[in-house]
Amino acid sequence: MKSPILSVESVDLAYGKAQVLHGVSLSVEPGEMVFIAGRNGAGKTTLLRTIAGFLPRAAGTVRYEGKDLGTVRPESVARSGIRYVAQDKRVFGKLTVRENIEIAAHVSGERVQEAVDRIVATYPPMEKFLDGSAGSLSGGQRQILLIGRALVGSPKLLLVDEPTEGLAAGTIEDIFRLLDGMKGRLSFLIVEQNLPVIARLADRVYLMKEGKIDRELATREEIEAPDSVERYL
Ligand SMILES: Nc1ncnc2c1ncn2[C@@H]1O[C@H](COP(=O)(O)OP(=O)(O)OP(=O)(O)O)[C@@H](O)[C@H]1O
Ligand SMILES: [Mg+2]
Fold this sequence. Notes:
By secondary structure, this protein is α/β, with parallel strands linked by helices. Helices cover 32% and strands 26% of the residues. It binds adenosine-5'-triphosphate and magnesium ion (MG).
């Protein structure tokens, strides 16, 4: 058996006195695309933010490539090769698309042009927007910029929070193709509520309910079974 790139073991997390994550355990194997689904408030974002080092765990362990990430900070998690794409789809709206990419390139030490080329190779239509303000991109283009920017510095694991949320059907297809094109080249843990996207892309699905992993779907049959994911949305 391969060893997981990410392993989350019995993680508890509380905001003040309100415990939100209860003994969450999951894993992602190298090259796997794993989804998390669950209702609003189930704790999906909290879980990704905990892995990304933004929230201090009350208990449990997060291992990346077998190493305990310890009491982590977001910068050190990012340096280790994990990228987090937040749910809010926020870009630096007053800067150009190219400048938004430049910021990530500076942090990672990658050359700006290489980072730009990588994003355009991932999504060619982005080329004509490079010198326009990022604030004028559509929601879908913004999401593509954020995922593209997350690839700067060649991470091994992407954590993506609801990439298709609020997007029109055609744009969801763009995001689907982008993710499909990257499948197998790196590892993914993606929070998603769109059933067809999950059904077409997932290697495995964790279903979250009230801060716990309630069920894991590990085969195509389970993932595609009518109602299996839907019951949790
Ligand atoms: N900063 C915070 N302070 C206190 N409570 C919070 C905070 N962020 C989230 N919560 C609470 O934690 C619980 C889980 O929230 P979280 O955002 O992780 O859910 P989610 O599954 O991502 O939901 P959604 O589908 O709406 O994005 C909710 O009850 C929420 O109100
Ligand atoms: Mg959320």
